Predict the structure.
Amino acid sequence: MQKIPVIAIFDVGKTNKKLFLFDEHYRIVYERSAKFIETVDEDGDPCENLESLRLSVFDSLRDVFKRPEFEIKAINFSTYGASFVYVDEGGQPLTPLYNYLKPYPEELQKQFYATYGGEEKLSKETASPVLGSLNSGMQLYRLKHEQPEVFQQMKYALHLPQYLSSLISGEFYTDITSIGCHTNLWDFTKGDYHAWVAQEGILEKLAPLKGADEAVPAAFPGNSYKVGIGLHDSSAALIPYLVNFQEPFALISTGTWCITLNPFNTSPLTTEELKQDCLSYLQYKGKPVKASRFFGGYEHEQEVKRIAIHFDMSTAVFKTVEYDPEIIQKLQREQKASNNLQEKTTALPTSGFAERDLSLFASGIEAYHQFVIDLVQQQVISSNLVLQGTDVKRIFVDGGFGKNAIYMNLLAAAFPDKEVYAASMAQATAIGTALAIHSLWNTKPLPNDIIELKYYAVTHQEA
């Protein structure tokens, strides 16, 4: 029997841990998922069960290697970011995998920023808003100051994808997509580690940098498969778009957060942009990507419940509600006629719909249309933070709002000079992780049909 050449991808989220096998056409030919019960660190804070994760990687691989129909050509990893594994000389973890939501000591944070030039200066240089433990470099600073004996013992601090990769390759590397995402470690003005990293003696605790498009041999003799060094998941999800589209584009990735990613905006972050929740990170080829975000998906969840309760409807109705241009035009006329209309110009975490009185609407469907109008207005302000001054011609929307006809039509109307598409792709993060090392395992040309696009023409002008 002819074996199918495949790549094995571990896609490790906070909740679900998945293993995919992709064939050379990037079709999923095998899938397995696991969930682990969290454990706690020495302070009683919840954290990932690292040992369960390690064993799961080996169990899953043992299982797929036994399958006679597949020939594994390569393995790669993508995981959530902002999480370090501190390993000794032998690659053994020295501490629990601390959660990036772990509260950060206020005094230590003040000390750090006071020592290295203040919050505003450092945030601009590292493209990292002040986020406590979510700035993973701050976790290293904390370890050095609170657990100096562990810091001494530590050979390397590895972001989670690189730790998982080291389990299979036996080698330790640092990946630019993990280092370049709000870690406080990378100086975007210099294109190198920030000066504080060397001054604190942390630089020598970071493994050598290796390209996300490179791979190394497996540590197990007799095996010929390649091992990628792993990627940060949000960078991985952008790769299929970077591979498929050469013309300047922006991607609005919609989930709990609505994040606008512009890989064609490399201008340094301004203080104003940082205040409005913008950041920059490095994509897999090392170029900066500017991003803005607001809490649109979370707000949608809350407001749909509020509308449903008020109008005594099921929230399920709003999953399939159709775009009604007449309702939109009526609401826009009323908005223009109202004297208290204020043009929104600042990117806020939410749209402000929560302040609206639902009894002013004729129906739940009308209220929902108004909510999406408000939401898209906030989306446009947020997206424009990273679109302005660039020649982006196309906007792709993936995730939940890409399936929302009201949102998509209003977005197309808001950007009449751009092509607006709903983009859908199964398992974008895992596919991006496989594409990063495409040439090292796949004999076929890069695929050009893995993203499904639906074009939204401007169907109406505002009344």
About this structure: The chain has two domains: 4-229, 246-463.
